[in-house]
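Morning!

This is the sequence you dropped in the shared folder:
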Amino acid sequence: MQSNKTIICFDMDGTLFTSNEAQVAAFNKSFERNNLPTQSAHNLVKQFGRPSLEIIREFFPNIPERKIQKINKDKTNLMAKEAYKLIRTIPGTREALEELKEKYYIAIISNASHDEITNLLKQAGLPARMFDAVACALEVQHGKPAPDEIFKVEKKLKAKAEYMVGDTIYDVRAGKAAGIKTVAVLTGVHSVDVLGEENPTLIIESVAVLPDVLFGRL
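The structure's back. Tokens below.
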């Protein structure tokens, strides 16, 4: 691999595609299966960007860990078998990634599992082979907002990460913790005001315009 290339780390959901509707449906169906009350879309979406296990614990702090693990497994299966149909691509994302690959390594940084990542990318029309590396929360001690996943892809690619791109405050915090530049996109969970409070390096409309920004065309 070319040692002069640096890495752009991308969050997945809300950054490369939108799956809020799918995630809400999968969480609530898994809650129903386990005889727990469903949650409003608003309250669920506010938690997105954190690992699923943490989200489940947030809503049901008093249930046994074994049941939390069962709910999470059900949620993963429901995403793969049913809710994936609700995933929507973000216009211009694939074209932007293909252009960025010419000068950078591109990597996925996600708190989802590898199986979830593969399934979600497939449904979004983004083949896993497009990405030079993937790091998920199961591979590291701490998921986002910790920087562990960023360090993991650096180790895999033997290269330095330069940018962290994502739609949530957790992405910005992970990038800052890793000591790299942060790019917040407005296609996901958090508003420009919320993201601005984290002082990212850049705030842009979507990944579609990232090549223009990085290659000085804007």
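Headline: The radius of gyration is 17 Å.

More detail when I'm at my desk.
O.
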